[in-house]
Amino acid sequence: VKDNFRVMPESVDTFRELTVSDQSRDELGAGLTECKFPVEDLDLYLTTLRQAFAKLPPDVLREIGCFGRHVAAPGALRLRNLPTDPVLPLTPADGGPSPEKRTAVSEGVVLGLCELIGLPFALHTEKEGSLVHDVVPVAAGAATQTNQGSKVFLTFHNDIVFDAEGTYDRANPDFIILFCLRQDRGGEAVTYYADARTAVQQLPEAVLSTLRQPLFRQNAPGSYVRNFAAGEKVLSDPVALIAGPLNAPEIRLAANGVEPLGSAAAEALETLRDACRSVAHQVRLAPGDALLLNNRKGVHARSAFSAHHDGSDRWLQRCYVRHELWSIRERADLRDPWLH
Ligand SMILES: [Fe+2]
Q: For residues 110 and 167, is the Cβ–Cβ distance under 8 A?
């Protein structure tokens, strides 16, 4: 039996990029322009999106399918030249959604991509339970380690979810889909993706061994702390930051603060952050670009950028996706969808 905990991969493909043809973009866009969002019958809406996306060429569908399915697949996939809304209103200043948005091409793209790799889901604690999140700079949150920030480097992290069990890794999205509606005026904003498979290769063995031990307490996400804990820290139980086989490790790194227990853990955390920086891929998302991220294989970050809060700012939409929902069923809204 091969011991995957000790085998380092020789080379690993962690980032892929694919451009959709103009013809495919226009055909997909034509079907999406008619839709509005939010919709009354979400299941029917997702079904029609699935039908629309099934018409994409097989090579594109295969790439997206592999990304969602395989352990060895890249942790980030950038898709370029996807359809955009014919008219885009001002970027909402309050964290969205925009009441001025008349078409739902972007929402259709985000949710259609979700349907190709898993199950889109929403959390009551994130963006008031919306399925599609607007990610825009908000003046009050400019310096925070959250999706509202702009003035500060948003440190390498994955999106975690507070859970009463205390480990904060159970209800997390398996994937995050980002779609760019509007780029920041100066084109300064860079999104980074660092894959744990290549990051761990940079680490001395003693550091990796420390990172595998439960020596780190993670703070709950900024949105949870702000809305449900009056801004006070809500720390996890001590957890490891790296888990699983070396050729497919899972990384956990909270954006809103990680408290190391002891000096060796503090040093290991810094070394891990340096390793993430050194292996990171850089992406400047432009309108029509989607970035699909595996939220367990790697961590992401965002550079600082200028925000003007005048409607011209950077505007992304985001959706969380899981392989399955059964294992977090205690969180489910049990109103029967068939009875709506
Ligand atoms: Fe994030």
A: no
CA 336 – ligand 1 centroid, Å: 31
- 1 C-alpha vs ligand 1 centroid, how far in Å? 37
**Nearest of 180, 148, 192, 221 to residue 283 by alpha carbon:** 192
5 has pLDDT over 60: no
How are the residues of the chain apportioned to helix, strand and coil, as percentages rounded to the nearest 5?
Answer: 30, 20, 50
At residue 189, the 3 state secondary structure works out as: coil
Q: Which residues surround ligand 1, an ion (CB under 5 A)?
A: 159
CA 22 to chain centre: 26
pLDDT tens track for 152-165: 999 999 999 999 89
**Is residue 337 scored above 90 in pLDDT?**
no
Q: Which two tokens stand for residue 84?
A: 């955009």
* CA 92/CA 143 separation, integer angstroms: 18
CA triplet 130, 37, 149: central angle to 5 degrees? 45
